[in-house]
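Researcher: Structure prediction, please.
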Amino acid sequence: DFEAAMAELLNAASDHISETPVDPKRYRWPVMQSDHTWNRSNVGDQLREKRELLRNRLMTYRPEDRQQVVIGIRLGTGFGKTHLLTDAPDLLAAQGLYVTYNNYQELSADRKDPVKTILIRLLLARNNCESTKCDQFLTSGKSGGMMEASSDALRDLLLYHLKSAWGQNYPDIVIGVDELMDLGVEESKRVLKELAEVSARYLSETKSMCTVLVSSLNTATFWTKSGRPVEEWAPDRPDRGTLEYFAHSFAGEERQRAMALANAVSGGHIRSMVLAFDLFRQDKVNASVQWLYNKMSSRMGAKIGQNTCSCIQDYVKESISSSGSPKIEPEVEEISDSIGAVPPVFLMMAYKGTSSEVHLENMIHAFSLFEKDGKHLELVSKYYDLFRATLGLPVVPGKTVVRLPLNGNNQKTTTWYEELEFSRNMSENQAALLKQKQTSSKGKTKTTVVATEEVPKFGNYYHPKIGNHPWIDRVYVAKHPCNSDPYCLVLVQDKVNESGFADACRKLEEAANSFTKKAGYPKNALLIVNVIGSGDRTRAQSGLTWPSILIRSLDEVRQFYSVNFADMVWFARERHLLSE
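Model: Predicted structure follows.
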């Protein structure tokens, strides 16, 4: 008797049931109460496509098959995973049921029998019992009667209740289950298997859709007990318009400052970005990178322990040095974004108290400096090099391609350049290495570029102070670990305007030709043409007679600066475009 069973459940749980419906949107993160979100229209379109994909699979569902029939979300849409789960019923024009395992609930009963408890939670959710009170009922003595029922009986009761709740006009429904990871990996797999069965039964018996969405910070939970994977969905990653969207309420220089600060502390991590803008809005006067970091780390870093910090450090090193995809431990996956980038706030936390801390902080602080776009890029790239030097990483990142000229000044192999090392004790030097010299002859003045008395040394990182330094923006000497001719000049030009690519190639070529002819200078050179935004179809590099690294497209930026720092570097290019 389903009616009697339902009455028994509601009577037992009466102390935990509200008189009025509970709005699941109350579970959204406090700064995310708004119904508006970046990219909401596209999110809706993508979600509807996913629903139809699942509908087709559910029509041929068999418990033992491996088709994905549940949507798994590891990352949110601009206001978080919970926002998406609680917005999904509106986006799909459906009735909604929402369950969360978050908010410090007592989950002992759920872990003991995850299948029965998820069915009871859904029944209670339909009857005005919020998730954070469900755990109180499940751990009380009053839940014993329902827990004695079989899983099959509880599933039948849930389906009967859902079908009778709205009469014969069976609506589409959405079941949203939030923060599965808090339940545990094995327990989550059993919940997913049960939700797949409920979804398939609802469609079969009503011809209406039951779309199940689950969220977790860790994809290890995205499998059923029988090995059926979920349909993982990562909404669009932040793009050029994201910062503009969140900065729409600001104007002029304040708007540019807000965008620069938010980018500095968030990279492409949407939750960090939303929080950064909210904090900036609260205190525009005091907002700085350090101020935002202090505020954000206290809110976002509560679960970041020493083991997680160590995992982040290992992941950062492997992301830079490896030629393949780095291994991402569960502790890192839980805080990274859709492409595996660790947000800057967590990077700063991970390296706090280490020898690399100062260079990482300087790099992140550089994003909020209102220098010219090109100078912005110079500063960020300089501190990235110094940061890598303290970690003992190679000069050439693992995914970066060294291009050897067909004819020219190359007597080494690609591998030789890939093995070049920084000095571990690199110090910055602002001395000029080149200067302009004017000579007069027969009433005419000729300007030439000549070397100064400063000779580049291993251990010095040259970033000339003068703004119009000829030919190069940055220079350092790298060393091969086992070679009779070990030293190599690394010469860099930084630009954010694609039209400057050919000029950068020409100047670096002239600098290398000039330096390597002088006594006391290394005779090997590696040119880094850091002209982001110029695309991968440039031709000027064909005139280079020295080995080179080209950093032009977003892909090449990610290869050189790694997944964790590419967004920050690319923002220099975005600033340039926004200012045009």
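Model: The chain has a mean pLDDT of 89.
Researcher: Thanks, that helps.
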